User: Fold this.
Amino acid sequence: MKNNILFLLLLLFATSLYSQRQSPLGGNNALTGIISDWGPRIMAQGDGSRFHMGFDYPRAANEFAVTVEAGSITYLSPAARTDHLENIVVNGWRYLHCLFGLSADELYELRLDAQNRPVLIIRSNPTTISHVYVQADYPLPTYEDINVEKTVGIGQNIFRPNTWNHLHLDRGYQVWVSPFSLLPRTDTQSPANTFSLKHNNNGTATEFPVNTPVYGNIIIESEVDYENEKDLDNVILQLGINNTFSEIFAWRYTGGNHMILTNLSNGTSNTPAYNIRQTGLLANIRTSVDEGVFPRTTPGLDVFKYIFNSKQTDPTSTLASGLRYPDGEYTFRVTATDLGGNSNPQNLVKTFDNLRPYIRKVEIRRNTANGDELYTGEWRWSGTALTLSQQSPRAATENDDIWVKITTSEPMTSLSLGVLAYASTPEAGSGNKVRLSKTYL
Ligand SMILES: [Zn+2]
Assistant:
């Protein structure tokens, strides 16, 4: 019984969070038919914002949309036909692309009154005004026989779209809060994401072969499908070793640590991976070596590319090479998360092989490991070049065995030893003889 009461309380609490809000299309969970969602987008005409900070929902001409929350009208856009920014702000919600009218024959007008102040007029028929809404800061204009209001209720019909036949809802310009996160809706579907690791193959992004090591500049490419709910919130790249994961990059669409675009309108950033790229055929996106976001409209499959360098150095590295990531097995993880927190992380296990091996030392001795030194060569790697220092204090005779020890710069899977040439002073009655008795790898 206690559990039932607790459950009931939780249910009441969860309901009350959103009980004072609803979909702009009416009721709860009615946000179907979003025609442009929150996040990077490319307009077909090449104009419009590259990062769309709100969502667009359709309304037919003359069809009203409704307030998602009750509250005061705090702003009515100064009417301007040209920029399509006519908007009404109610309790922090901004409804954009509202119908604007100057003539008296419209059922709905967002217009200037005689004192040049914006007012919103709704007529019950072409000749009878039923409501006049005014911005709260303004003194009430005098209208006879009509309701003059500066607050509206939830679900009230005070919006109609302009000739674009859609309205745009947001929480204000450059406020990184998606309206979706504040509205009641059922959200159960995770964004689907698949990813691959590619390299720049003469200007073409080419996938590393399966079961081979990866190294150098690795293009982490993620294709995220969130078409059904249109509510993608972030894509996070992580790298793990021994089950400890750390973030290597993230595209975050909301919140304080959101992606930074230096120019929202053309989608450019100081961080190349945030750049919003023009899109075309999916096949062309897949072969592109550019970093960035490739937003697509139909079908809704966005592609994200980030160039990760497995050879990056790190001043705190304990490796002689200074590399941050020693050769070994790593797990790449890509997680795409929607506004409701749903995600379905994907993993790829790969081996890093960053270093080309080299012979560090060759020792040659007479007969045994403790025999006279015949030759020692040492190669030192400066990071750019190998330098050899060597000495050869004595020569072997034809009756000696040769003991050879080879030291490599890293563990090897194979190493072969061959004799390419030899020099000798022929003696009568004896052939030239090379005997290799032992090798130590
Ligand atoms: Zn919009």
Summary: DSSP finds two helices and 28 strands in the chain. The chain has three domains: 18-182, 192-352, 359-440.
